[in-house]
């Protein structure tokens, strides 16, 4: 009777959690793998990685280096989040609407006070 319970438990393998490596850890692994004194396979086994993971890290390092090296000198352009951009865009639309409404009101007031003349 208890045998069926144990076989069910052994059939289910524990789910592997996806491991998150920080940028610093990835760079450390990259540097270590570049060092010709240590076998790459040993580093991968120790870190629990596959060769495809190392290839992805190498590609990310290359892309990051190229992006940083291609940057023009001077102050960096700041990036704005999509939410902030949409909020500013909405605020601008509201202000443009309010300005248009005030322009119409001003035109009406000028017509009433000056008899239609724009010169003053």
Protein described:
The protein is an all-alpha fold. The chain has two domains: 51 residues; 36 residues. Helices cover 69% and strands 0% of the residues. It is built from five helices and no strands. It is rod-shaped and about 90 Å long. 2% of the residues are buried.
Query: What number is the mean pLDDT?
Result: 83
Number of domains: 2
Rg computed from alpha carbons, rounded to a whole number of angstroms: 32 Å
Specify the helix fraction band.
55-70%
Helix tally equals: 5
Question: Brief overview, please?
Answer:
The chain has helices at residues 2-11, 23-34, 40-47, 51-70, 82-114.
Question: Key features?
Answer:
0% strand, 120 residues, rod-shaped, mainly alpha
What is the topological layout?
Layout: H1 2-11, H2 23-34, H3 40-47, H4 51-70, H5 82-114
Helix pairs in contact: 2-4
